[in-house]
Amino acid sequence: MIDGRIIKALSGFFYVETEDENIYQCRGRGVFRNKKISPLVGDYVRFDKSNPNEGYIMEVKERENELIRPPVANIDQAIIVSSATEPDLNTILLDRFLVLIESKDIQPVIFITKMDTVSDGAIEKINNYKKDYQQMGYEVELLSSKEPSQLPDLGRYFTNNVTVIAGQSGVGKSSLLNALNPSLLLKTAEISKSLGRGKHTTRHVELVRVHSGYVADTPGFSSLDFSEIELEDLTDCFPEFRERKEDCKFRGCMHNKEPKCAIKQAVDKGEIASYRYEHYLSFYEEIQTRKPRY
């Protein structure tokens, strides 16, 4: 039996990389289907070698975490790529990504691209957003689309990490990865002017090497739902709420209509950005009114 990690899944085959960096094309055992186990990219597995560089996966080891879309397991961090323009920075969409990633106990990092295309009047606004998210505890990088080889040293984010790149289509995810590792030659999407969004360019999930780590390049998202998040867990997906929730007068405070709520008091004092609280209320209502799952 050999240990390895799945780095690509395609057409029913799983490509497993071992510690010595050999890659084996494997199939999953039929018994997995009976047990409703679906191997995912990022899974640590044990497999039997049947032929040179071929094998059968016999065991999927316990996961630290997993995402449904993209289907990846054992992720260390998610880099959320938002663009300053084309499409314009959308904080409610950024917060949707942050909430989903926080709900999986994955570390988020924010990259804002295309800063060279921002008008002088909008630069201050973007810088204020950067300051807000840094105060929440997030790392934020502002990136130019010109001279990608002159990107600041972003390698530190990727070294020894498994990273998911998330963001809506057309924000420059593949362009960013190409700049970090030109040998990847990932396809880049042209913005569709009529639709105002990019075309999907990535067809399968694969872990690729970037700066001594792995990155999953995945399709862009246009919508995200909170079907896996329970109402009582939403507060913990906002770090600036999480650190203050014990100061609320009532245990189990949902920071909505309750009196003497520490979160609402912090919003009134300007310690929590008002748009973050508005997004929280919007997400709260969305989860509260969703149809029950059976």
Automatic annotation (TrEMBL):
Amino acids binding Zn(2+): 248, 253, 255, 261
Gene3D superfamilies per record: Nucleic acid-binding proteins (2.40.50.140), P-loop containing nucleotide triphosphate hydrolases (3.40.50.300), Probable gtpase engc, domain 3 (1.10.40.50)
EC numbers, comma separated: 3.6.1.-
Keyword Translocase: no
Domain of life: Bacteria
Keywords: Cytoplasm, GTP-binding, Hydrolase, Metal-binding, Nucleotide-binding, Ribosome biogenesis, RNA-binding, rRNA-binding, Zinc
Listed cofactors: Zn(2+)
Domain EngC GTPase: 73-222
Domain CP-type G stretches: 64-224
Binding sites annotated in the UniProt record for GTP: 113-116, 167-175
Pfam families from the UniProt entry: RsgA_GTPase, RsgA_N
Location(s), subcellular: Cytoplasm
GO molecular function: hydrolase activity
Keyword RNA-binding: yes
Cofactor: how bound: Binds 1 zinc ion per subunit.
Top-rank EC class of the record's enzyme: hydrolase
PANTHER family assigned: SMALL RIBOSOMAL SUBUNIT BIOGENESIS GTPASE RSGA, SMALL RIBOSOMAL SUBUNIT BIOGENESIS GTPASE RSGA 1, MITOCHONDRIAL-RELATED
Family: Belongs to the TRAFAC class YlqF/YawG GTPase family. RsgA subfamily.
Assembly information from the UniProt record: Monomer. Associates with 30S ribosomal subunit, binds 16S rRNA.
Annotated function: One of several proteins that assist in the late maturation steps of the functional core of the 30S ribosomal subunit. Helps release RbfA from mature subunits. May play a role in the assembly of ribosomal proteins into the subunit. Circularly permuted GTPase that catalyzes slow GTP hydrolysis, GTPase activity is stimulated by the 30S ribosomal subunit.
Protein name, per record: Small ribosomal subunit biogenesis GTPase RsgA
Organism: Virgibacillus natechei
